[in-house]
Write a structure and sequence with these properties.
The complex is a heterodimer of chains A (115) and B (112). With 115 residues, chain A is mainly beta. Chain A has no helices and eleven strands. Chain A starts with a strand and ends with a strand. The chains are: A mainly beta (115), B mainly beta (112).
Chain lengths: 115, 112
């Protein structure tokens, strides 16, 4: 496989469920990101990891819990979500973080619906 | 803080017509500039980028963009629209030490 792979592509969950989104990159990058894309809103950066260390958390509610066990894998653990959390969650990776001109490579996204 | 504006949340063109999607950024120091495209139910894909050098950059699918420092603009063009160009287009900038900043996006419709 190549690029950035996200699973599942679609997820429907109730407000009391616990689920996880998975992202895997096969590009040898060292930085990984979670973005949230809601209808009629700009892309929102949620979390940034660089060499497995979280370097940024953009005031994301604690019901979203990221995990980065290594530079190739990134998870987003979800629990007690709200309907307004329904969105497309995009994972991205890049070679380097600050000061690097390399572009972001995105996965195809996980479409989350919270009932 | 940096910001990116894209004039027109929705642009419609006829097939074969010129495509022009506008992007302006606010920055006292020229950033690195990108255009991404997003097809329905997919992630973002890089169309083209400007870092240094020639200000007219060519990308995939016949798109190109010109960096104009004096106008703080990075407009995206394509001479002749194709039905397959219908998608959402995002302009993005990044400066040293900062995260990517994305514009709100422009949805391009191509009419037969």
């Amino acid at each position: 496989e190549t690029g950035v792979t996200q699973t599942p592509r679609h997820l429907v969950m109730g407000m009391t469920n616990k689920k996880s989104l998975k992202c895997e990159q096969h590009l040898g990058h060292n930085a990984m990101y979670w973005y949230k894309q809601s209808a009629k809103k700009p892309l929102e950066l949620m979390f940034v990891y660089n060499f497995k260390e979280q370097t940024e958390n953009n005031s994301v509610p604690s019901r979203f819990s990221p995990e980065c066990p290594n530079s190739s894998h990134l998870f987003l653990h979800l629990h007690t979500l709200q309907p307004e959390d329904s969105a497309l969650y995009l994972c991205a990776s890049s070679q380097g973080r600050r000061g690097v001109t390399g572009e972001l490579f995105f996965g195809e996204g996980s479409r989350l619906t919270v009932l | 803080a940096q910001s990116v504006t894209q004039l027109g949340s929705h642009v419609s063109v006829s097939e074969g017509a010129l495509v022009l999607l506008r992007c302006n950024y606010s920055s006292s120091v020229p950033p690195y500039l990108f255009w991404y495209v997003q097809y329905p139910n997919q992630g973002l894909q890089l169309l083209l980028k400007y870092t240094t050098g020639a200000t007219l950059v060519k990308g995939i699918n016949g798109f190109e963009a010109e960096f104009k420092k004096s106008e703080t603009s990075f407009h995206l063009t394509k001479p002749s629209a194709h039905m397959s160009d219908a998608a959402e287009y995002f302009c993005a900038v990044i400066r040293y030490g900062q995260n990517f900043v994305f514009g709100p996006g422009t949805r391009l419709s191509v009419l037969p």
